[in-house]
Automatic annotation (TrEMBL):
It comes from Streptomyces anandii. PANTHER family: AMINOALKYLPHOSPHONATE N-ACETYLTRANSFERASE-RELATED (PTHR43877:SF2), AMINOALKYLPHOSPHONATE N-ACETYLTRANSFERASE-RELATED-RELATED (PTHR43877). The keyword Metal-binding does not apply. Gene3D superfamilies: 3.40.630.30. The keyword Acyltransferase applies. Keywords: Acyltransferase, Transferase. InterPro entries: Acyl_CoA_acyltransferase, Bact_Acetyltransf, GNAT_dom. Residues 22-168 form the N-acetyltransferase domain. Its EC number is 2.3.-.-. This is GNAT family N-acetyltransferase.
Length: 173
């Protein structure tokens, strides 16, 4: 069934709200399980999952230097994208996630576009991000949205691909 953007909304959300916490848990569970299943043939240990979720609450995604966005599909929380300023001109895109049941309906491009707008409003002229090799859908999305693969820009042990995109001023701005 074709879906229109009218079913999607993307709005700022406090990083520590119950909605944000539930989406962070879903995101982290999915990417962690995917990595462990690929590399060790098992799911994430529940204690490890809880430690990692607690260790990364997302406070860097709070204004004035960051923003967490929540996408809702037909009114229900469906995904997130976060932006944080690394320096006055550079923002990092992080926590891009959609629940599996809402993928393929245009929400990812809307989320990333809203994150780019948020980065511009923070003063950024460039967006960077990293991802893993096994997250092929993410890499395809970023390429489709104009991100170019670039050299390593951080020391994240799980990052295998790094991307950048120039953020041109918003139309009319």
């Amino acid at each position: 069934m074709p879906t229109t953007a009218a079913l999607w909304t993307v709005t700022p959300e406090p990083y520590d709200s119950p909605v944000a916490a539930a989406l962070w848990r879903a995101y982290y569970t999915e990417v962690s399980d995917r990595w462990y299943l690929l590399h060790e043939g098992r799911r994430t240990d529940p204690a490890e999952l809880e430690r990692e979720i607690a260790a990364k609450p997302g406070d860097e995604l709070a204004p004035p230097r960051g923003q967490l966005l929540v996408a809702r599909y037909d009114g229900e929380p469906a995904g997130t994208a976060g932006v944080r300023l690394l320096d006055p001109a550079t923002a990092e895109l992080t926590r891009v996630f959609l629940h599996a049941g809402t993928r393929g309906r245009g929400g990812a491009a809307l989320l990333v576009g809203a994150a780019e707008d948020a980065a511009r409003s923070l003063g950024a002229t460039r967006m960077i991000l990293d991802t893993r090799g096994d997250l092929v859908e993410a890499r395809a999305l970023y390429a489709r949205l104009g991100y170019e693969e670039t050299a390593r820009h951080n020391d994240d042990p799980y990052a295998e691909h790094w991307f950048t995109k120039s953020l041109r001023p918003a139309r009319g701005g």
